[in-house]
Amino acid sequence: MSAPTPTADDVLVEIRDLHFARGDKPIFAGVDLRIRRGEVTAIMGPSGTGKTTLLKLVGGQLQPDRGTVHVDGDNVHALGITGLYRLRRRMGMLFQSGALLTDLSVFDNVAFPLREHTDLPEPVLRDLVLLKLQAVGLRGARDLMPAELSGGMARRVALARAIALDPTMVMYDEPFTGQDPISMGVLVDLIRRLNDVLGLTSIIVSHDVAETARIADRIHVLSGGRIVESGTPEALYASESEWVRQFMHGLPDGPVPFHYPAKAGFAEDLLGAAGSGHA
Amino acid sequence: MRNRRVVEIWVGLFVALGAAALFALAIQVSNIPVFESTDGYEVELRFANIGGLRTRAPVTVGGVRVGRVSDIRLDPDSYQAVVSARIQSDYRLPEDTSASIYTSGLLGEQYIALDPGGMDMYLRDGDEITLTQSALVLERLIGQFLYQMGGDNEEE
Amino acid sequence: MLNGLQRLGATSLEVFARLGRGFLFLLRALAGMPALALRPGLVVQQLFSVGVLSLVIIVVSGLFVGMVLGLQGYTTLVNFGADQSLGVLVALSVVRELGPVVTALLFGGRAGSALAAEIGLMKSTDQLSGMEMMAVDPMRRVIAPRLLAGFLAMPLLAAIFSFLAIFGAYLVGVGLLGVDSGAFWGQMQDAVEFREDILNGVIKSLAFGFVASWIAVFEGYDAEPTSEGVSRATTRTVVNTSLAVLGLDFVLTALMFG
Fold first, then answer.
1. By the CB < 8 Å criterion, does B27 face chain C?
2. Do A100 and C127 touch (CB under 8 A)?
3. Average pLDDT over residues B111-140
4. Domain range holding A78?
5. Contact residues, chain C, for B29 at CB < 8 Å
6. Mean residue pLDDT across chain A
7. In DSSP terms, which residues pair with B61 in a beta bridge?
8. Distance (Å, whole) CA C224 – CA C216
């Protein structure tokens, strides 16, 4: 909320030495990350690196094996259920699917957190909801049901719902996946604008490099369970690491090979198969 | 909001229907002895043999049901069967009322038939009916019959 | 051989794990119950989808079960000249057994599977996670009202079923086959006890309602968050509900009438 000077006060989310494994499969092996107030921070990485898992750890939905996550000074995983719920009121989260409640209309979806957490009289509530819907440009769609919305609209409604309680931070889980260019543009613009106008802190988890790089102040690249590189988008495009460059520019071949590792060589495979398809 | 009202009306209707069905079951299907067993008085009857009498068997006077058997146990000293019967309080029975165990139909349920006497004193809660006639057990009846047929010449 | 044993061990461990999860889940859901006193609207909403929407199938099956029972009972009883006892036969079998049990089985197929599918779908589309992130406890907001509604709806549905079954038997027995109306009701009233029979039937259906809705909400909540997971959860709901109801019915019957 103040000028971006790197003091401890300036950090909203601090992740230290985070370890997490799902079954036998390690997902994070020592993630260190600081997210500053007021910025749009992107966490990027190829599919399956646990970006969504990271958001769930920040939101306290998952318990880390080791390490800490501090949000606004509170250790998320040391809070009791009451403390955690109080903290979550200051977090908004936009799920990849939108996660709108299917049996409620657009209006009621946005009103949902307000109705659950406040005792506002109906006219005030209505004004607030319309305000939020206006912010995402969907005031006219208030009476539609979630099933009648396009994917992009559903995400905007979910965004309106995420900011309904005026949170300090909003987390976006793959906000651009599967969107047509127009709604993608709308979302990109919306995330940046809401961040600046409402004084939010935004965390975007994505693998859509171009869109994310357009609005992010800072990008952290996640790979192999660690942050491999951090910096501004420009710095990352010009990264010295071959891997990061391959990822940022979307090159088909590089340190990450085009071919999935096979036991035998291609020629051997073809010749050795000799007739039977399933050797 | 209108939708919510419809839901409320339907649910109200549903609950009312369920309650009505339950009420109908209580009134029309069962004899609802909740009222019966609370008011009424209990009398004890002693029988040498009750045959197949069971709890909840009817107690009748002149074929009209006036109560039910509420408990059956054995007196450990006299080896008599002690039957408790709950009689509806509308019916007053003289103290010299006698009781028998009969069977409704040839193979039907057994019940207690009361035969009111002529005394002015009436039975009260906890009183005992002393004039009782045991159940007729078919095997014993046949046995007796055969014995009498056979013993006619020797004894009488 | 060893492999088979291992699999058997793993399967039985999974069974215990599910049982444990289900029990903990139930405790958490019960902990969310008191808060419902402040939001009765949530329960009313669920009573609609669990109770009112099951009415049609309950009404139709109740009538038909009663009619069949009347027909079958009559043809058997008339051989012994006991067709006057048709009312007793039907009323006792319906009030004690068929009413609660068949209602619970139908409930599992209609309301239980719908509950499991709904909750499973909410899970697979992140709606439950989304609620958690909005600081709304889905246990309290989603699970508890459904559990309570199922528990409340079952005895009402069973009463409606039983009444209609007896009415159906009356239609066939008295209306069609010429059993004496007075004997039909009179013998029934003599034989059916309110406390012993009807109240025990209600207690049974309360127990079934509790178990059936517990299974349904748990299967939904425990479903793998995929389409196959949800469809498996609905199937499991119907199967497990049927087994649980029949097993429980045996135990309860032994306790009550044994």
1. no
2. yes
3. 83
4. 8-273
5. 91, 95, 163, 166, 188-189, 192, 198
6. 85
7. B64, B114
8. 14
pLDDT in tens, B64-84: 888 888 888 998 988 888 999
| pLDDT for A260 beyond 80 | no
Contact C246, C101 (CB under 8 A): yes
Closest CA to C216 of C199, C197, C234: C234
Length of chain B: 156
Nearest-angstrom CA–CA distance, A85 and C117:
27
* A208 within some domain: yes
Residue A3 falls inside a structural domain: no
The CATH number of residue A260's host domain is 3.40.50.300
ipTM above 0.85, yes or no: no
List Cα–Cα distances, A79 to A68, A71, A74, A85, C205, in angstroms: 12, 11, 8, 9, 42
The domain tally of chain A equals 1
Top residue of A74, A97, A110 to mutate, by most chain C CBs within 10 Å, is A97
**Residue boundaries of the structural domains of chain C:** 58-253
Gyration radius of chain C's alpha carbons: 21
Among partner residues C48, C155, C160, which is closest to B10 by beta-carbon distance? C48
- What does the pLDDT read at residue A4? 42
What's the pLDDT tens digit per position in B15-61?
999 999 988 888 887 766 544 455 688 888 888 888 878 777 888 88
For C47-64, write each residue's pLDDT tens digit: 999 999 999 999 999 999
